Amino acid sequence: MGLSSEGVGILRDGASGAKGGVEGVLPPYRLASRVRHPEDTRIRVRDVEIGGGSRFVVFAGPCAVETPDQLLATARIVKEAGGAVLRGGAYKPRTSPYSFQGLQDEGLKVLAEARRLTGLPVVTEVMDPEDIEAVASTADILQVGARNVQNFSLLKKLGRVKRPILLKRGMMTTIEEFLLAAEYILSSGNPQVILCERGIRTFETATRNTLDLSAVPVLKERTHLPVIVDPSHAVGNWRYVIPMARGAMAVGADGLMVEVHVCPQAALCDGDQSLRPDRFRELMEELRPLARLLGREL
């Protein structure tokens, strides 16, 4: 495999798994399916490889880029603790139009500076097709949030971008609908899709959403695409993030996306679910022996 000039490429190995359908019969998500593509897809972003089962990749950072100092301090913490990818929202989709909507273009500049200083690749959300070019010029991975998982116009345009796409499952999206959303990107020409389980909406109110950990083995059976888990948005409370993160590794996820903030009580969004620096370090320390037990790298 050859890497592009941006340091992004795609690898395929010989690891096989159960096929996502009857032998020889393609499901509707034909490009995402293991029937047609039995080996795991591995996506390389700079020096980080996602997928394939050997490495458990931790994406971490604040929900939103708020200030340069806030993001850079968090980026250094993520790097020192062993995180592999820096997350941070420059454009923020919010339920209320009066909530903080992100620094937008200025936030992209702050993310670029954080990458320069730490060497961490960055992932940030794109919401509007008009912003794709600007976001792709900065981000190593473009994220599609849960609210846009079936924004098919956006997905098709992201299929023409030479960047990996992190696709989050919608709050009311079935696994088949999720894979068909990925199919829009794949069928438009971009084979670099990472799936993210981030909780679904059920009758339960004790947590923000219900983290569907069963989706991970189901997806790993049906698709060759990497699968990661976001427990922060699923549970909505920092107290439950670490145990659910352990569960994500145990059920076979390729990685984890968690929210980390230097001062969660002052966060402009999602402070309740964000880990303090000491708790993020605790998370990483708890994951290391579990990774060794499962024969994986962290």
- What class do helices, strands and sheet pairing give? alpha/beta
- Structurally, the number of domains stands at 1
In CATH, what is the class?
Answer: Alpha Beta
- Give the overall average pLDDT: 92
Alpha-carbon distance between the termini? 23 Å
Q: How much of the residues is beta strand, in percent?
A: 15-25%
Low-pLDDT parts are 1-7, 12-20
The 3D shape can be described as globular
Rg is 18 Å
> Mind telling me the CATH superfamily name?
Aldolase class I
> What does the largest sheet look like?
8 strands, parallel, barrel
| Strands side by side in the biggest sheet | 4-5-6-7-8-9-10-11
Estimate percent helicity.
Answer: 25-40%
Give the strand tally. 11
Encode the helix/strand succession as letters.
EEEEHEHEHEHEHEHEHHEH
Number of helices: 9
Known CATH architecture:
Alpha-Beta Barrel
**CATH fold annotation:** TIM Barrel
